[in-house]
Design a protein that fits this description.
This protein has one domain. The protein has helices spanning 2-17, 24-29, 38-66, 86-99, 122-134, 159-167, 196-222, 246-268; strands at residues 34-37, 105-109, 138-142, 147-155, 181-189, 193-195, 231-233, 242-244. Strands 2-5-4-3 form a 4-stranded antiparallel sheet, with helices on both faces. A two-stranded antiparallel sheet has the order 1-6. 35% of the residues are buried. The chain has 8 helices and 8 strands; from the N terminus they run H-H-E-H-H-E-H-E-E-H-E-E-H-E-E-H. The protein is α+β, with helices and mostly antiparallel strands. Helix 7 (196-222) packs antiparallel against helix 8. The structure holds heme C (HEC). Heme C binds at residues 53, 57, 61, 71, 73, 85-88, 108-110, 113-115, 118, 154, 156-158, 160-161, 164-165, 168, 182-183.
């Protein structure tokens, strides 16, 4: 699995190195100057997250449910044969990033959460009201935590989001509709600007987080009863009782998102 991440890194590195026209003396400092504002970087990683989250929700959870696959809060328990809910997938990514040396924070909150621990408070609650109105990202410096903070709308992008939240026993709102702002992802980083190296580290810690939680899911699947066990390989739940391997999953994320991110990295140069 490490290879997949390395390939992504190499892909980024190649794009960065191949744009030519960089004078020799400058190329030595490339990678150490701060070239991106923290806002730009958090926007890039939030975009990767949107793509990953929608892909997981639609192609794995949405289509998987039609095949009889289950997704549950207690997916990690031995007696529960299920995969992680989208929010728990995201929390898995956040946990993996927290364990990495990259000082990037990720949190998913709402004003009407299923889980009370996910309710926005203070400044974030105020800004979330604005996000609900215009769906535009909000940036601020959190004086208390000394962290640059960015919030991005989390939209009900798939039927699965709406039906699951509306019908959840602990829901605090049961009339969510497709397209609603259901919450926001909050991202935090300690510095106001980043070098290429730090930017690539942020993006790859996100990608690694995705692979880590997806692999945990596949590990759980390995312990399912034979009759229920999806086949893991190139196929997706759309075609039957199948799950893509971590490589195949990450490859789709890359196809859907990295092009935009790379364009950003190249243009900035
Ligand atoms: C199969 C059920 C299910 C699906 C599908 C689902 N969610 Fe959730 N969602 C949950 C549960 C349960 C939680 C609370 C998880 C926790 O933190 O314990 C949650 C948490 C959240 C939160 C954090 C606030 C809260 O409600 O606790 C947001 C925002 C959110 N989901 C939005 C979405 C969006 C947007 C989608 C579709 C892209 C989606 N959810 C799909 C069940 C679901």
């Amino acid at each position: 699995m490490k290879n997949v991440i390395n390939i992504m890194l190499v892909a980024f590195a190649l794009v960065l190195n191949s744009c030519g026209g960089v004078p020799e003396e400058k190329s030595e400092t490339v990678g150490s100057e701060n070239v991106f504002s923290v806002e730009e970087v958090l926007e890039m990683v939030a975009k990767e997250n949107d793509v990953t989250r929608t892909l997981y929700t639609k192609a794995i959870v949405g289509k998987g449910k039609l095949q009889g696959m289950k997704f549950d809060e207690d997916w990690r328990k031995d007696n529960v044969e299920a995969g992680p809910l989208p929010a728990l997938f995201l929390r898995g990514v956040a946990t993996s990033i927290r364990k990495s040396p990259v000082p990037l924070g990720l949190y998913l909150g709402s004003d009407f959460p299923v889980n009370a621990a996910n309710k926005f408070e203070g400044k974030q609650a105020d800004l979330f009201k604005q996000i609900k109105k215009d769906q535009k990202p909000q940036f601020f410096y959190d004086e208390e935590q000394k962290l640059h903070t960015a919030m991005f709308a989390d939209l009900a992008s798939a039927d699965a989001c709406v039906t699951c939240h509306n019908n959840h026993p602990q829901t605090t709102k049961s009339d969510w509709k497709l397209g609603d702002v259901m919450g926001a992802t909050t991202w935090q980083y300690p510095k106001d600007s980043l070098s290429y190296k730090e930017t690539v580290e942020v993006l790859s810690s996100y990608a690694k987080g995705t692979v880590d939680i997806y692999m945990e899911y596949l590990d759980e699947v390995a312990a399912f009863k034979e009759s229920e066990k999806p086949e893991i390989g190139n196929k997706w739940p759309e075609e039957g009782n199948y799950l893509p391997s971590a490589e195949v999953f990450l490859d789709s994320v890359k196809k859907l998102s990295s092009y935009e991110t790379m364009k950003h990295l190249v243009v900035a140069k």
